[in-house]
Design goal:
The complex is a heteropentamer of chains A (about 400), B (about 300), C (about 350), D (about 250) and E (about 240). Chain A has twelve helices and 16 strands. Chain A has about 400 residues and is α/β, with parallel strands linked by helices. In chain A, helix 1 packs across helix 11, helix 2 packs parallel to helix 3 and helix 5 crosses helix 6. Chain B has one domain: Orthogonal Bundle (ABC transporter involved in vitamin B12 uptake, BtuC). Chain B has a two-stranded antiparallel sheet. Classes of the chains: A alpha/beta (about 400), B mainly alpha (about 300), C mainly alpha (about 350), D alpha/beta (about 250), E alpha/beta (about 240). Bound molecules: adenosine-5'-triphosphate (ATP) (2 copies) and magnesium ion (2 copies).
Chain lengths: ~400, ~300, ~350, ~250, ~240
């Protein structure tokens, strides 16, 4: 036989089964990202059991193989290779943080298997070495970019009187690098200059150097990991640094991390990539965003999180692409993805439609939000609420108020 | 002014490291165990306190509960896991039954690997129980409160942490230096076999040492839990800093550990003041520099060859 | 002048390994032949990729055992060289354009070249100090790497040299190459330990001062071990990068590599050539079998580590093998005298 | 016996306040045995360390056969023919007795050429350890450990042999074996320096005696004269005066 | 009633039977010297009496109560104190702290710090030094002092002269004689026959783990004892257990 001919390879296997591989993050430091994945994968398995995918009149049963990246990029690449080469999946889904999406996409490129990824701004996904987007043939990414974040941020900052000076709190990780490399130029046009004292390593325990450099900056912007932001924000309080508006990516993503800030989380702003009030519905289940979020809260008892919609969207995209391709052949799926248009629970997604991004990137709508503390919240309900305060980029998503300056 | 501020903040940071390092130093000094589970155990203490606080206990009462619980846990862990592992170190040291294909047994690595196993398993168990979400022990306004100190403003919580660290270290140091039990503990550290000949049960004494270490670690865990957001894996992030504090200070010297924590803290803040990217790196470089100049640490209690 | 005041009486028979060892070695050779000539044709490409990880683990375990088990240098910082190897591979293959096999070997050489000056720092320390010191050195490597823009900073690098190659060719190449490398490393370690140098190294491990008084060049010996062990870690790092097609500083410089090495060596049986082989297979098999359990996988891993140390202190190999050695390094004296 | 094999001149060494050697000088020729006595803590072992190169002196020189060893490390000196035993034995616990001795024969012993294994075996036979060749050295009892110390040193085929308390704890009947071994070595042309508190054994074989107290040579020369000198009687052999080492510094 | 009574004691290291059916009795205030060649099993016997290496068979009665399987640290509290081979002081503790470790079992009795300093006046002078920097002879004195502070019923001394300068040996044994003269019951293992015969009331000779000679010390011939070491004196009253 041939080398590696022991069993199916990628794209092989039964023609009446759609085998989806999912590299999720269930353990390790990024595990909160994976919680929504786990929930959606389970409900999708039920859904597909009752609703097989119909392709050209033939019914495909759907099988989902999940592997845990353990929050480690080497492990992510390893399990992606296993999914492709041992499990023989037809395509690979993955999400959340470039540390995971990029190695998975590399494996898919090397093994000629389609890969659909999300929950990572497109710049750190696309730009892997040097400053040019990589030339990817099998990877398709759906998310927004830093130009969108900066526009949203600028709009939010415009709602609060400020001196046009912003302090940048960027870590030395893929997100921080992308933020610090792109943000200053992007916000300059809006009259805000960002002072970036340099990328600090994750896990930094003392931010007094940053705090002394930040004095006199009305705006704080950054993408720290949650523990680092808590450390920073507390030390800011202790050492008397008080910006008018603080817009923080990543660290404020999950309600639990905002809750962990105590009262100090009130009024912090952040980009919002998915919100239950958005007027979108799932192309698979027909659930609205609100229904999906409510269902999640009922089933898990936890507050809804933004990755939820995107986990759902990954499956919507998959089914649409396979139907468009008319088969599970990897090249056919890749071909279908390159021009795919689909309306998902996170909004309209279309590849090849936007010349300002690489052809394998499809952008999703982005708005801005502010965390508001509900002082009178009952025991057992969630004390913080995320209110949409900026929708210039996606007017279809309704706002719930204006940015209030920090107290 | 910035430099002064950086220095002061560094000292406060050092207090945090020293508090965490105190138990590490005790275990390292008495048993030569490099306890890799120290960080995650501190996190466990934080979770436990948080749980109690969520049950409605005031924080001080939670601490009063958690510290003795951890002392008991330390006693049990030592008797159940570390003592058997240490027995192998000694078996190897005495040559013991080393007959056979050159295989020498885990030897001095046994405690290291046991603590590693505990760390890995415990981290995952914590995640299973508490999920990977980040938490914090609520402190009201304490966490972000500052107190003016001359021209500077320093955090109240870090100040309290430093004071507690100094108090704990002084207490443990006094216990070791002045009480018969402390003396017996040092004797066991020198020669457990000879200590047994004076009526000390080395295994019990080791367990007492670990109990004390765990009590201090629980306290450190509570302070970690108040001052930052923690998740099951958070312990690894600060474990190395605590080790550095122990080693800079020198084996077996708790005052050294405090000094080590402060040196490391100041190195990090001053380093960050020079270049915000390099705070942690500067701490590491100062650590290595100290070791190059004084391979025994700053204040080693010179232990005989 | 010299000793022989008593005439040689009843010269002893000195043997190293017996028939058991020969049979065992034959068995091992057979396994290697099977791995080289049969396995690739009967398993999936995915299985081959994960076997590459097994081979890398064997190299990691074997070289860490060289360090700790034979050299007495308990380094917790070998991830420094895993990282150096990974980055060197990608730079050589992508930026310089070296063929992958040459890039891997060169990564090993670079690892050795970095280890040599580092050893002067590390050797000032001993015991727990050395363990923590090496860990800090590895952190310094990671932090410095993260500050070099050319190395991708905190994001790391992707390996692009393989883009466009046929995947079967790629997987097959990496597989055979890793297999050959593993065999070379294990055999090389064995021959080293069997040689006079190996005897000297064991003496250094047991008592440095006494070894010195008997003419063993202690510093040179330890340095040799450190440099060779680090070169091995760098080779493994290069293989890992080759197989995962990229590196990120957090992952390739992760202390979990060293944790894996310690697990492999101690669980397998330290101070033997066979131990790390057994340990690597156990570690890899646990990973393969239990990874779907998510969190519980690590719980099991931790419990296995504790259980083996406490219940089988000489490791799994010590448990099954007793006096038997597949790779005989010790001498047995059958005295001519009574 | 014209040019001494070993020339130690003006050696000084202190640990903090404790002086363990102050301007110590002595010589030993090939085929000569020098006994080294003195109160506990006088600095005998330290002096041996300095000659063997495991410790560096603060001042002074060590010359072997006209070659200055002062800057050489222990291994280099072993290569030149200096061998020693340790007062507190230091076996390679992970190796068998035979392998322990093989280390001596394979490194410093290599300069003799010939078969390493034979040399190792002879050293075992001479010291009466041949029967224990396969025993893991870690499980030897104290006396056999001391024997192993001597065997390892012999396996290097030394020109200068430094022995540190190899007779302590032996019975009256065992002592003559040790004495005989030292005598044979000396007669073969090896220079021997032997530290020993078991005086009658020492006096049986040494050609000269040197007495050290608090780091200073207080008597040197004919063994029986040295042993009768008042200072030696006072600080070493027994009188009311308490010799507190280092204290006189 | 005898303070210590041992019958049929067997102690093993793996397959090796190091002490093979030894019996002995120690009356109050008596000093017994145990003699024998290297490896005869003397230290092993003491280890079994002190509880650092538990016997495989036989009984050890202390004041009539069985302590055979009791670990060392509990046996000290009952009054068995061993001065081990090689002194084994706590190097990082001061001399006085080392002595105070002897007080750990808190047994009442005549020995306190003052009494020990009286016997070893030179030790008093260096009470604040770390034990590690003492010379061998000084260490030996501290080790004996430490054992005395436990106010033992039985003091076990294992080759306390090993590696000591002649002057020191004399002084140490002077002290031992003074201690036993004050009524402390002692069991002494000693290679130096002259010293042993001078300090002991009775001697017991071991050969390969068995008792080969038991006799009062007074008038005993050195040569006879030495012969017994090697089992070449059938005419002496030997006792096989
Ligand atoms: N590393 C060290 N640090 C401090 N003091 C030391 C050190 N090594 C030895 N000493 C001291 O130096 C002195 C001489 O020690 P040395 O071992 O040479 O004595 P010695 O003559 O061999 O005694 P003995 O007959 O008891 O073996 C002693 O007081 C000892 O405590
Ligand atoms: N830890 C041990 N492991 C194995 N065998 C041992 C051990 N200790 C002693 N032995 C053996 O037990 C026997 C008795 O040893 P022991 O030390 O009791 O003799 P001893 O009479 O005290 O001799 P010495 O005069 O040398 O001190 C010896 O054959 C010795 O080899
Ligand atoms: Mg000496
Ligand atoms: Mg003995």
């Amino acid at each position: 036989g041939d080398v590696g001919g022991g069993s199916v390879g990628g794209g092989g296997g039964d023609d009446d089964v759609l085998k989806i591989g999912f590299v999720s993050t269930e353990t390790g430091s990024s595990a909160p990202f994976g919680e929504a994945n786990t929930y959606v994968i389970e409900s999708m398995e039920q859904w597909f059991a009752e609703h097989p995918v119909t392709v050209d009149g033939a019914e495909l049963s759907v099988e989902i193989v999940v592997k845990d990246s353990q929050s480690d990029s080497a492990r992510a690449g390893e399990v992606a290779a296993e999914l492709i080469n041992s499990d023989g999946v037809d395509l690979v889904l993955t999400s959340s943080t470039p540390d995971i999406t990029n190695p998975v996409s590399e494996q898919c490129e090397a093994n000629s298997v389609p890969c659909i990824s999300t929950v990572a701004p497109w710049q750190p996904f696309a730009i892997r070495d040097g400053d040019q987007p990589a030339d990817l043939k099998y990877s398709y990414h759906a998310f927004w970019g830093l130009e969108d974040v900066s526009a949203v941020y600028a709009d939010m900052w415009g709602q609060v009187e400020n001196n046009g000076k912003a302090a940048g709190l960027f870590p030395n990780d893929p997100d921080g690098q992308a933020w610090s490399a792109n943000f200053p130029a992007l916000t300059e046009d809006t009259g805000v200059t960002i002072d970036d004292p340099g990328l600090y390593p994750n896990g930094t325990q003392d931010f007094s150097a940053q705090l002394s450099a930040f004095e006199g900056h009305d705006i704080l912007v950054g993408v720290p990991i949650p523990p680092d932001f808590t450390t920073f924000w507390q030390q800011a309080g202790q050492q008397g640094y008080q910006p008018k508006v603080a817009t923080i990516g990543k660290a404020l993503l999950f309600p639990s991390s905002v809750e962990a800030l105590g009262n100090a989380g009130d009024g912090l702003t952040s980009e919002v990539w998915w919100h239950p009030t958005a007027p979108f519905t799932s192309s698979l289940t027909g659930q609205t965003a609100q229904e999906l979020a409510d269902q999640y809260e009922t089933d898990t008892g936890k507050q809804w999180t933004q990755p939820l919609g995107f986990a759902e969207a990954l499956f919507e995209i998959t089914v649409a692409a396979v139907q468009e391709a008319g088969s599970t052949d990897p090249d056919a799926i890749t071909g279908a993805l390159s021009t795919l248009e689909v309306s998902t629970v996170v909004g309209d997604i279309a590849w090849g439609a936007d010349d300002s991004v690489p052809p394998y990137v499809a952008k999703t709508p982005l708005v801005g939000g502010q965390w508001r503390l509900d002082e009178g919240a009952d025991e057992g309900t969630h004390p913080y609420e995320l209110v949409v305060v900026s929708n210039t980029l996606a007017p279809e998503i309704p706002t719930g108020g204006e940015v209030e300056p920090l107290r | 002014m910035d430099w002064l501020n950086a220095g002061v903040q560094g000292v406060l940071l050092g207090g945090q490291y020293a508090l965490l390092a105190c138990g590490l130093s005790l275990i390292f000094g008495v048993m030569r165990i490099v306890n890799l589970a120290h960080g995650v155990l501190a996190v466990l203490a934080a979770y436990l306190s948080l749980f109690l606080v969520q049950q409605g206990l005031p924080l001080w009462l939670a601490v009063v509960v958690v510290v003795p619980v951890f002392a008991a846990l330390g006693y049990a862990v030592q008797r159940g896991l570390f003592n058997p592992a240490l027995a192998q170190v000694r078996a190897r040291g005495a040559g013991g039954d080393s007959r056979g294909g050159g295989s020498r047994g885990a030897g001095e690595l046994a405690p290291l690997l046991v603590s590693f196993g505990v760390a890995v398993a415990l981290t995952s168990l914590l995640q299973e129980v508490f999920s990977a979400d980040t938490r914090r022990i609520p402190t009201g306004d304490l966490a972000s409160a500052g107190v003016p100190l001359g021209p500077l403003s320093v955090g109240l919580l870090p100040l309290i942490t430093l004071v507690v660290a100094v108090a704990v270290i002084a207490g443990v140091q006094l216990f070791l230096a002045r009480t018969p039990t402390g003396r017996a503990m040092r004797a066991v550290a020198d020669d457990p076999g000879a200590a047994a000949l004076t009526g000390v049960d080395p295994r019990h004494m080791y367990a007492v040492a670990t109990a004390v270490a765990f009590a201090t670690l629980a306290l450190a865990g509570v302070f970690v839990g108040m001052s930052t957001q923690f998740s099951p894996g958070y312990g690894d992030l600060v474990l190395l800093f605590a080790f550095e504090a122990v080693i800079i200070g020198g084996l077996g010297s708790l005052w050294g550990t405090l000094a080590g924590g402060v040196v490391l803290g100041v190195a990090q803040t001053i380093g960050a003041q020079i270049d915000p990217q390099s705070g942690v790196l500067a701490g590491h470089l100062v650590f290595l520099a100290v070791l190059v100049v004084r391979p025994g640490g700053l204040l080693p209690r010179s232990v005989p060859a | 002048m010299s000793v022989p005041t008593v005439p040689p009486t009843g010269a002893p028979t000195i043997t190293r390994g017996g028939r058991g060892s020969l049979i065992g070695a034959g068995g091992l050779a057979l396994v290697v032949v099977l791995l080289a000539a049969v396995v690739p044709y009967v398993v999936t490409l995915g299985a081959l990729s994960s076997l590459v990880m097994l081979f890398a683990l064997v190299i990691l375990g074997t070289t860490w055992n060289l360090l700790a088990g034979y050299g007495g240098i308990v380094s917790v910082g070998q991830q420094a060289y895993v990282g150096v190897g990974g980055y060197a591979l990608i730079q050589l293959a992508d930026a310089v354009g070296a063929p992958p096999w040459a890039a891997v070997l060169a990564a090993g050489v670079i690892g050795a070249a970095v280890a040599l000056p580092t050893s002067y720092l590390v050797f000032r320390l001993a015991g727990g100090y050395l363990a923590i010191g090496t860990w800090v050195v590895a952190e310094v490597f990671r932090l410095v790497t993260m500050q070099i823009d050319g190395l991708g900073g905190g994001s790391g690098l992707s390996l692009t040299a393989f883009r466009g190659t046929d995947r079967v060719d790629r997987v097959a190449f990496v597989y055979w190459f890793a297999l050959a490398l593993m065999v070379a490393v294990v055999l090389g370690t064995y021959l080293l330990m069997r040689s006079r140098v190996g005897l000297g190294l064991t003496a250094i491990r047991d008592d440095r001062v006494a070894a010195g008084s008997l003419g063993v060049a202690v510093d040179r010996g330890r340095r040799l071990v450190y440099v060779a062990g680090s070169a091995g870690a760098a080779l493994a790092g290069a293989l890992i990068a080759l197989s995962t097609l990229g590196v990120t500083p957090g992952s390739i410089y992760s202390v979990s590599w060293t944790a894996a090495m310690i697990f492999i060596v101690v669980v397998g049986g330290i101070g033997t050539i066979e131990g790390p082989l057994v340990g690597a297979v156990v570690y890899w098999a646990l990973q393969q079998a239990l990874a779907p359990l998510g969190t519980w996988y690590l719980v099991v891993l931790g419990v296995v580590a504790v259980a083996v140390v406490l219940l089988a202190p000489r490791g799994l190999w010590g448990l099954v093998a007793g006096r038997f050695q597949l790779f005989p390094t010790t001498y047995r004296v059958r005295s001519g005298r009574i | 016996m014209t040019v001494p094999l070993l020339q130690v001149a003006g050696v000084a060494k202190r640990f903090g306040r404790v002086v363990t050697a102050r301007d110590v000088s002595f010589e030993v020729s090939a085929g000569e045995a020098l006994g080294l006595v003195g109160p506990n803590g006088a600095g005998k072992t330290t002096l041996l360390d300095i000659v063997a190169g495991t410790r560096r002196a603060d001042a002074g020189s060590v010359v072997l056969d006209g070659q200055d060893l002062t800057r050489l490390g222990a291994a280099a000196r072993a290569d030149l023919g200096v061998a020693r035993s340790y007062q507190v034995p230091r076996p390679f616990a992970g190796l068998t007795v035979y392998e322990n001795v093989l280390v001596g024969a394979s490194f410093a012993g290599r300069r003799h050429g010939g078969d390493t294994r034979d040399r190792a075996w002879h050293a075992l036979e001479v010291t009466g350890l041949a029967g224990a060749a396969d025993t893991p050295s870690g499980s030897l009892r104290l006396l056999d450990r001391k024997r192993l110390e001597v065997a390892r040193a012999l396996a290097t085929g030394p020109r200068l042999l430094l022995l540190d308390e190899i007779a302590g704890g032996l019975t009256e009947r065992e002592l003559p074996q040790v004495v005989g071994l030292v005598r044979r070595l000396r007669d073969d042309g090896v220079a021997v320096v032997w530290i020993e508190h078991v005086l009658h054994a020492l006096l049986d074989v040494v050609d000269r005696l040197l007495c050290l107290a608090a780091g200073e040579v207080i008597a040197q020369g004919d063994p029986h004269e040295v042993i009768r000198s008042p200072e030696v009687v006072e600080v070493y052999l027994g009188s009311t005066v308490d010799s507190v080492p280092g204290e006189s510094a | 009633m005898s303070v210590l009574e041992v019958t049929g004691l067997e102690v093993r290291y793996g397959d090796l039977l190091a002490v093979d059916g030894v019996g002995l009795t120690l009356a109050e205030g008596e000093t017994l010297a145990v003699l024998g060649a290297n490896g005869a099993g003397k230290s092993t016997l003491l280890a079994a009496l002190a509880g650092t290496h538990l016997p495989a068979a036989g009984t050890v009665l202390l004041d009539g109560a069985a302590v055979t399987g009791m670990p060392a640290h509990r046996r000290v509290r009952r009054g068995v104190a061993l001065v081990p081979e090689g002194r084994r002081l706590f190097g990082s503790l001061t001399v006085e702290e080392n002595l105070l470790m002897g007080r750990y079992p808190r047994r009442p009795g005549p020995w306190d710090l003052r009494a020990v300093y009286d016997v070893f006046p030179h030790v008093a002078e260096m009470r604040d030094r770390r034990a590690a920097v003492l010379s061998g002879g000084q260490q030996q004195a501290v080790a004996i002092g430490r054992a005395l502070l436990a106010n033992p019923r039985v003091l076990l001394l294992d080759e306390v002269s090993l590696g000591l300068a002649p002057a020191v040996v004399t002084r140490i044994y002077d002290a031992v004689r003074r201690i036993t003269a004050e009524g402390t019951t002692a069991l002494v293992v000693e290679q130096d026959l002259d010293q042993a015969l001078r300090v002991a009331d009775r001697v017991q000779c071991l050969l390969r783990g068995r008792t080969v000679l038991e006799a009062p010390a007074a008038g005993l011939d050195r040569e006879a004892v030495a012969d017994a070491y090697f089992g070449i004196t059938p005419d002496l009253r030997t006792q096989e257990n």
